[in-house]
């Protein structure tokens, strides 16, 4: 039972939240310009980080706000909790290897 | 290799079992192999076995970060069935089922495959509709499947509660009589012994740390025991596939989640079949030792911790108790977690990758154990021929680009 | 029977209060404070069980939850419980218990013949045989194994007891109430922090209750009494006894299993819940979980009468029950000497301590010597005599490396063996918290090394086995933990002074040799008692290549019995490490998993098993009316919806026929309140809907409604519903009943994470509104009577419009939408007016013979019109185009969720499975929903399936069965005959339009 600090409500049990998957995958602004493979990259492909994983949670049984959590997927240690639209740097020691650079990806906005 | 039998047991008993040979060697890696398989779980070992047996490729190494069979092979609830909805899945798993049915003799290793019947319960009208749909699909695909109404469910499994007063009453079930359970460790050990005998090197405590790739072609792997060259490299590393694939610059539609299971203390037999209920998250059978073996739901978040949250187990036991009120006074003896690799359509990826001569077999979700012989058999074919077998052609990564998913979530069950 | 082995010394029992009990059919007497095990020992009963595999006679080995042998079935009837440890069962008047897994009795057990074939029953033998012919496995071998296996028997009746779940926060959680735990709780409690102290035993005090330690010059139990009294007086401290902390989960989440009533006897306290699971979220944790004594592994070390040394001490000191008349102590460390001394003081004859160490000169051994106990060094027990009870031992000098017996054997008569192989800290919870262990070569055990959570380990659990260290470490940890949560200054209170006797080092000695090589003769060296795993089995596993500790465990089943390796794990892996000639830390240990000791399923399930409490049941305000009027209900998600309303003598078919006729010819009324409703406001609301729905929303006029599809990004239909424009920036959305919560989450996800610049607010209003759907040709007449001030003319209140007004005297919003094809109005009123309006409709509608109808009739009517139900016609793999609804996909409005996926190769295929209608040749034949379809009548196996029947009904209006189906390339195959297959039955069906009734929509306006 994880204990997650909602940025709006404070510490709550995991059961008050729903998990929302990997964070910072912005919806492409112009999907029509993407190839099928690029679109699949957005819809299906995930980093699935072993280590510190930036992910989204929603406080379903509370304020219903979405926010981001950086959590170590091996130890479940929560490194950082931050609001949607933010993307703080994480301490060097706790960051895992970033996803490989995506040469194929179309222009994407950051920060969602 | 010495053959296992009651006679060899008796003979060895005369010498106080001092002369049993090792079931597999502990070889050091050779500099180069025709095929290196990453991951010595059931899938990796079965793949090596069938590469050697069916395709004559014996210059094979199976390399394993920890101990063989130590991942999901040794952590699942051992259910085997083939009653999947879609043709692609049904035929794939049915091929696996046929291999299961002869596996103990094939491997000369008793994997205790026990076809005690698997029931999948239906709890509402939508479940009933989808269950009948699946039974009919199975029948037309040559897979045994029956629909049981609530009374027939009770007849097949007398301890089940079919009272209308349940929160989600049992309205019926599908039954696959040929489904059942097997001894998970024995599957890994049997394949390891069989592959080893044909010359395959099973190398434990050897962690992959990088991929050798030149011009889009894989050339080998970098490991904790040094570089190993390979003409072909095949991933069979379940929950860690994304991590290994990342070394080759490949992104996959896979997420790894904690999946918990538990056993009760051993008791005299009360449950002689496998009962599954997706709607209320109960998967239960009783092992030959007398323990109730139960699977819980998948924890929601990505996790490599091999541990989950207790509330998932509490919810699951509450549901189980509704179905089996008499379970109340037994006790949970051990719980544990695995790392399940899940795909968006609840079907696996088994095939080629964008890197030439590098292959992937992953995304099995909760279905990996039952697939073991079939996955190994098809994967061996794919590696040997550099093209998928008809049975796994539908399970390519490309389906996420074309949209040809094989959605085995079952009907979404959204009610109007 | 009298208690021949009861002394006058037991400190925690009350001899004046006798308790009668029955074991294996015989009557005995015990006293208050006894466990079943101590009472049996007081009565001289040691043979209490049989081993799992070869059914060897077994006696009581321990005094706690790690007991592998004394496994009993308690009571009979619905409150019977299997597999309890006699060492943990507190005695109560009338207790009745029996041994498990032996027949006909523990004294004469038929299955002991297994021992004859015991030479074959080595580790993993079952993997090597029973393979041919394969049919025999299922029919002969496995059933035989299943009958033989298993311990106790589950009662068949429903559990009459109830169980609770508790949730609590605290600053400092202390697990274990021995000297370290009590000190920690005192130190933390005095700061004012919220402290929880739990212990699995019925009394606080831990090992201090078992021994004769001295604190501040007085018996330690006096200090315990004072400490507990102080804790009890603190309002900020919660004390839980009989409470097993079984799990240490993420983020300092400690779970505790509390047994509240078992010690009173079954059903004796009906007003209390039997057990509780506590969930503690603690800021800091102090683990003071103590340690377990290890048995020595020697030849035939399983004879009844063989006991862990400290257990013997406990039975004598705590319960006043002597383990026997004459005992031999066998040890490799000093702690067992205090046992010998206490037992002699208690009146037992302890002629000899056999010590594996060459030099034994510690204070305790010397005290023992002074008491006249012979100490034999460099020696071991190399054989035991007796079968159902120890009759004697043979001792001899043994080589220091354990390889052989070096001296001549000497026989000593005795009825008891007390063995100590050293101590293993109970690091289970520490390890569960992902703390890292370290192997301590000097103390010969694994100890905590690196903490992973906000946790401190103290006392024996840390490997600090002396009393003063436990007291000091506990006090320091308690104070420091409290300080870390903002209480106190972190200074440990001065701890009391213990009388400490210095102990000399232990000698690691894993297998004691006998007169034949281990495993090559009759004598067996047991490592895991319950599972009959011997040292020879572990050596065999190593020979066969099972070199990982996990392989050894799984191949031999070491540590997989009900004690989960508390006694066997360290011995097992040490034997493996010596076989592999690898150091113990290199071999490593297996993972510790919850629970620490087994926890009842019933307790884990809590209240959740009792019907409505399993999951909330949602009912509409009109539920009571439906119930009173005989409705049958269908569960839809959490909701209970009226399915149909049978009149006397009607079955479902008759009721639905009557209900559908009313809708087509008169007027019907449906409770549609369960539909999800979401209020959407904000200046960008229309723009947002345009992105979420497949069709265009910007130009929808205020006062009008529109039907929409939502897709997932993969282009597949996910939910549908009618959304109405209440104002320029205000919409009322409806969703499917089951999809409501998911849709709201979905909307919020896009709003908050993708388009935070849009100003839109969503609110769930599902339960704000009661929705009554009134349909049929006479609906308008009824509405006009219900709402005389409203204009229901087609001109002023057209199809797909909504109007505010007063209906039946209450404010209402009326939508002119139809899921039946006939004239239909959906009236929304405030929730609390729902029942009133319903009753008013029934009252005013009586002259039109108004007919309430349920979901089944709704499904038939909508199917007649070819309307889809998301979740029935769809399963997450259909696009709007597949459903023949290209019209709902806007071509020009630009992007919306899921749109991009349409042009993918497979999604753009022209021959996808498409929604069609099916008509059977025989009008009376109703297809089965879920029937599979093929183009040809006769097919090979596997058959080429082209789709399936999604909906199928008898249509009274058409006097013909109708069905909807998804068929590959169906839209191009209108008029073709195909075949439906349902479990062997084949039916010829024609592909038709899914709109069976009123294809021109002429009935819509009444």
Question: How is this structure best described in words?
Answer:
The complex is a heterotrimer of chains A (112), B (416) and C (1006). Helices cover 7% and strands 29% of the residues of chain A. Chain A contains 1 helix and 6 strands. With 112 residues, chain A is mainly β. The two termini of chain A are 27 Å apart. Residues 95-112 of chain A have low confidence and may be disordered. Chain B is built from 11 helices and 18 strands. Chain B is globular, with a radius of gyration of 21 Å. Chain B has 416 residues and is of the alpha/beta class. In chain B, a hairpin with a 4-residue loop joins strand 13 (274-277) and strand 14. Among the domains of chain C are: 1-122 and 150-160, 2Fe-2S iron-sulphur cluster binding domain, sarcosine oxidase, alpha subunit, N-terminal domain (Ubiquitin-like (UB roll)); 163-291 and 425-484, FAD/NAD(P)-binding domain (3-Layer(bba) Sandwich); 296-421, FAD/NAD(P)-binding domain, CATH 3.50.50.60; 517-580, Arc Repressor Mutant, subunit A (Orthogonal Bundle), CATH 1.10.10.1100; 878-992, Aminomethyltransferase beta-barrel domains (Elongation Factor Tu (Ef-tu), domain 3), CATH 2.40.30. Chain C is 21% helix and 27% strand. Chain C is elongated, with a radius of gyration of 38 Å. Strand 16 (331-342) of chain B pairs antiparallel with strand 31 (599-600) of chain C, so a sheet runs across the interface.
């Amino acid at each position: 039972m994880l204990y997650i600090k909602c940025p709006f409500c404070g510490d709550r049990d995991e059961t008050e939240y729903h998990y929302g998957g990997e964070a910072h995958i912005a919806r492409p602004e112009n999907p029509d310009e993407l190839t099928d493979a690029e679109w699949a990259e957005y819809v299906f492909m995930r980093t699935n980080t072993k280590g510190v994983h930036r992910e989204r949670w929603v406080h379903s049984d509370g304020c219903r706000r979405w926010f981001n959590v950086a959590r170590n997927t091996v130890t479940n240690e929560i490194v950082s909790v931050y609001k949607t639209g933010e993307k703080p740097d994480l301490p060097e020691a706790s960051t895992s290897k970033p996803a490989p650079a995506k040469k194929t990806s179309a222009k994407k906005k950051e920060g969602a | 290799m010495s053959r296992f039998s009651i006679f060899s047991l008796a003979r060895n008993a005369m010498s106080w079992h001092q002369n049993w040979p090792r079931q597999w060697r502990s070889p050091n890696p050779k500099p180069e192999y025709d095929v290196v398989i990453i991951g010595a779980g059931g899938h990796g070992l079965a793949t090596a076995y069938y590469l050697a047996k069916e395709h004559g490729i014996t210059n094979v190494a199976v390399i394993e970060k920890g101990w063989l069979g130590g991942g999901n092979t040794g952590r699942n609830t051992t259910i085997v069935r083939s009653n999947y909805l879609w043709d692609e899945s049904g035929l794939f798993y049915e091929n696996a089922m046929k291999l299961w049915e002869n596996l103990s003799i094939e491997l000369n290793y008793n994997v205790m495959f026990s076809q005690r019947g698997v029931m999948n319960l239906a709890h509402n009208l939508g479940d009933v509709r989808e269950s009948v749909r699946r039974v009919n699909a199975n029948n037309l695909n040559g897979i045994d499947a029956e629909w049981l109404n609530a009374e027939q469910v009770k007849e097949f499994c007398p301890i089940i509660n079919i009272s209308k007063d349940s929160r989600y009453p049992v309205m019926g079930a599908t039954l696959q009589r040929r489904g059942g359970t097997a001894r998970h460790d024995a599957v890994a050990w049997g394949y390891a012994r069989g592959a080893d005998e044909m010359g395959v090197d099973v190398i434990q405590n050897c962690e992959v740390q990088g991929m050798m790739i030149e011009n889009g072609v894989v050339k080998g792997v970098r490991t904790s025991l040094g570089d190993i060259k390979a003409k072909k490299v095949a991933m069979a590393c379940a929950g860690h596939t994304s991590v290994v694939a990342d070394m080759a610059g490949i992104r996959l539609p896979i997420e790894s989640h904690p999946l918990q299971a538990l056993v009760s203390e051993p008791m005299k037999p009360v449950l002689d079949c496998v009962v599954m209920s997706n709607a209320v998250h109960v998967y239960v059978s009783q092992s030959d030792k007398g323990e109730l073996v139960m699977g819980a739901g998948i924890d929601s978040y990505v996790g490599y911790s091999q541990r989950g949250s207790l509330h998932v187990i509490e919810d699951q036991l509450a549901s189980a108790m509704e179905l089996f009120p008499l379970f109340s006074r037994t006790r949970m003896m051990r719980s544990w977690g695995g790392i399940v690799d899940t795909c968006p359509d609840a079907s696996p990826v088994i095939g080629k990758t964008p890197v030439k001569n590098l292959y992937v077999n992953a995304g099995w979700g909760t279905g990996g154990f039952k697939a073991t012989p079939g996955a190994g058999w098809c994967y061996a074919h794919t590696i040997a021929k550099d093209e998928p077998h008809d049975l796994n052609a539908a399970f390519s990564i490309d389906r996420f680009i074309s949209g040809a998913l094989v959605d085995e979530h079952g009907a979404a069950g959204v009610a109007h | 029977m009298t208690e021949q082995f009861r002394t006058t010394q037991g400190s925690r029992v009350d001899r004046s209060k006798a308790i009668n009990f029955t074991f294996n059919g015989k009557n005995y007497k015990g006293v208050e404070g006894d466990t079943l095990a101590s009472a049996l020992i007081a009565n001289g009963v040691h043979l209490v069980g049989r081993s799992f595999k070869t059914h060897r006679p077994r006696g009581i080995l321990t005094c706690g939850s790690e007991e592998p042998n004394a496994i009993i079935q308690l009571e009979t009837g619905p409150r019977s419980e299997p597999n309890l440890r006699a060492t943990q069962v507190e005695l109560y008047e009338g207790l009745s218990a029996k041994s498990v897994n032996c027949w006909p009795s523990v004294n004469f057990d038929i299955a002991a013949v297994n021992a004859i074939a015991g030479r074959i029953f080595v580790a993993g033998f079952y993997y090597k045989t029973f393979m041919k012919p394969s049919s025999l496995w299922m029919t002969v071998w496995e059933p035989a194994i299943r009958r033989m296996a298993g311990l106790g028997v589950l009662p068949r009746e429903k559990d009459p007891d109830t169980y609770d779940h508790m949730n609590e926060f605290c600053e400092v959680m202390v697990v274990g109430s021995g000297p370290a735990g009590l000190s920690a709780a005192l130190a933390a409690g005095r700061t004012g922090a919220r402290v929880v102290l739990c212990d699995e035993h019925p009394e606080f005090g831990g090992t201090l209750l078992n021994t004769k330690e001295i604190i501040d010059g007085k018996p330690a139990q006096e200090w315990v009494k004072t400490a507990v009294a102080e804790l009890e007086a603190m309002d900020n401290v919660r004390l839980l006894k009989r409470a097993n902390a079984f799990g240490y989960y993420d983020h300092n989440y400690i779970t505790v299993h509390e047994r509240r009533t078992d010690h009173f006897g079954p059903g004796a306290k009906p007003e209390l819940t039997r057990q509780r699971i506590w969930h503690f979220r603690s800021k800091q944790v102090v683990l003071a979980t103590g340690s377990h004594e290890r048995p020595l592994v020697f030849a035939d070390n399983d004879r009844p009468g063989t006991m862990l040394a400290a257990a013997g001490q406990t039975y004598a000191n705590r319960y006043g029950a002597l383990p026997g008349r004459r005992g031999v102590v066998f040890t490799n460390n000093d702690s067992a000497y205090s046992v010998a001394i206490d037992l002699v003081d208690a009146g037992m004859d302890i002629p000899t301590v056999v010590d594996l160490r060459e030099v034994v000169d510690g204070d305790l051994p010397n005290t023992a010597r002074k008491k006249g106990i012979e100490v034999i060094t460099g020696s071991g027990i190399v054989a035991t005599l007796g079968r159902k009870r120890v009759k004697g031992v043979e001792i001899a000098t043994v080589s220091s490396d354990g390889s052989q017996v070096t001296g001549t054997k000497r026989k000593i008569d005795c009825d008891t063996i007390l063995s100590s192989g050293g101590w293993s800290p109970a690091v289970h919870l520490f390890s569960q918290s992902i703390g890292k262990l370290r192997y301590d070569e000097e103390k010969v055990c694994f100890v905590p090394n690196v903490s992973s959570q906000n946790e401190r380990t103290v006392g024996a659990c840390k490997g600090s086995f002396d009393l003063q260290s436990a007291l000091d470490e506990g006090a320091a940890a308690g104070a420091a933990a409290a300080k870390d949560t903002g209480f106190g200054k972190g200074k440990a209170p001065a701890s009391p002074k213990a009388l400490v006797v210095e102990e000399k080092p232990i000698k690691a000695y894993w297998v004691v040799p006998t007169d034949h090589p281990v495993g090559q003769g009759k004598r067996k060296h047991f490592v895991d008692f319950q599972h009959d795993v011997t040292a020879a089995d572990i050596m065999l596993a190593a020979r066969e290549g099972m070199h990982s500790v996990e392989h050894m465990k799984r191949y031999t089943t070491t540590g997989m019995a009900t004690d989960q390796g508390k006694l066997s794990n360290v011995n097992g892996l040490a034997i493996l490490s010596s076989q592999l000639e690898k150091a113990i830390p290199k071999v490593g240990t297996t993972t510790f998993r919850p629970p620490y000791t087994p926890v009842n399923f019933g307790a884990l399930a809590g209240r959740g098993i009792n019907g409505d409490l399993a999951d909330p049941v949602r009912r509409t305000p009109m539920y009571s009316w439906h119930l009173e009027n005989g409705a049958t209900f269908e569960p839809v998600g959490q909701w209970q919806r009226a399915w149909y309303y049978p009149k006397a003598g009607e079955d479902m078919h008759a009721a639905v026929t009557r209900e559908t006729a009313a809708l087509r010819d008169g007027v019907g009324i449906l409770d549609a309140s369960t539909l999800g409703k979401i209020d959407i406001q904000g200046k960008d609301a229309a723009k947002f809907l345009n992105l979420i729905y497949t069709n265009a929303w910007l130009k929808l006029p205020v006062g009008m409604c529109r039907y929409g599809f939502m897709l997932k990004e993969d282009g597949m239909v996910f939910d549908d519903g009618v959304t109405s424009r209440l104002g320029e920036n205000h919409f009322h959305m409806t969703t499917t009943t089951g999809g409501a919560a998911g849709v709201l989450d979905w909307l919020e996800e896009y709003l908050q994470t993708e388009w935070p610049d849009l100003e839109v607010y969503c609110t769930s209003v599902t339960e704000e509104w009661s929705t009554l759907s009134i349909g049929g040709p006479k609906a308008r007449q009824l509405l006009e009577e219900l709402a005389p001030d409203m204009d229901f003319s087609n001109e002023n209140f057209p199809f797909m419009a909504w109007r505010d007004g007063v209906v039946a005297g209450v404010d209402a919003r009326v939508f002119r939408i139809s899921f039946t094809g006939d004239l239909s109005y959906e009236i929304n009123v405030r929730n609390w007016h729902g029942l009133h309006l319903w009753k008013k409709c029934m009252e005013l509608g009586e002259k039109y013979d108004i007919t309430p109808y349920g979901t089944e009739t709704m499904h038939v009517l909508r199917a007649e019109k070819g309307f889809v139900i998301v979740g029935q016609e769809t399963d997450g793999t259909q696009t709007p185009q597949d459903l023949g609804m290209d019209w709902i996909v806007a071509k020009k409005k630009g992007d919306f969720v899921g749109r991009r996926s349409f042009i993918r190769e497979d999604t753009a295929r022209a021959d996808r499975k498409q929604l069609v209608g099916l008509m059977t040749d025989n009008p009376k034949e109703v297809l089965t929903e879920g029937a599979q379809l093929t183009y040809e009548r006769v097919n090979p196996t596997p058959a080429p399936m082209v789709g399936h029947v999604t909906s199928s009904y008898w249509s009274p209006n058409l006097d013909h069965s109708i069905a909807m189906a998804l068929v590959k390339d169906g839209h191009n195959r209108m008029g073709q005959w195909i075949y439906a297959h349902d479990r062997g039955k084949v039916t010829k069906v024609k592909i038709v339009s899914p709109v069976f009734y009123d294809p021109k929509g002429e009935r819509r306006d009444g």
